[in-house]
Amino acid sequence: QVQLVESGGGLVQAGGSLRLSCAASGRSFSRYVMGWFRQAPGKEREFVAGISWSGSATSYADSVKGRFTISRDNAKNTAYLQMNSLKPEDTAVYYCGADSSVGVRTRPVEYDYWGQGTQVTVSS
Length: 124
What we know:
Strand content: over 45%
Structural class: mainly beta
Radius of gyration: 13 Å
Distance between the termini: 40 Å
């Protein structure tokens, strides 16, 4: 069992930055692929970024490439999402997920554990 808690969301102007954190407790954080997803009102949850166990492999949605950076600190049981050059279309609830597979996967159904989410609102 893994418990995940997101933090760092908020209201920011377009062009601004936010850093989201996902703190994990429970079993062996370093054995889980970590992913960030987001869900806007009326839309399905979508993949944003993912990172492998060691942090050596990352994957990003095309919409955030070059603006967002995912990272992890296994000693602190925490994953991060640095979001720069934010746009109004980035507005959503952001969730972190933990996946017990080997590689980074992009479908929400493939993730085993989820946090409660943190709201990110980007004003124009």
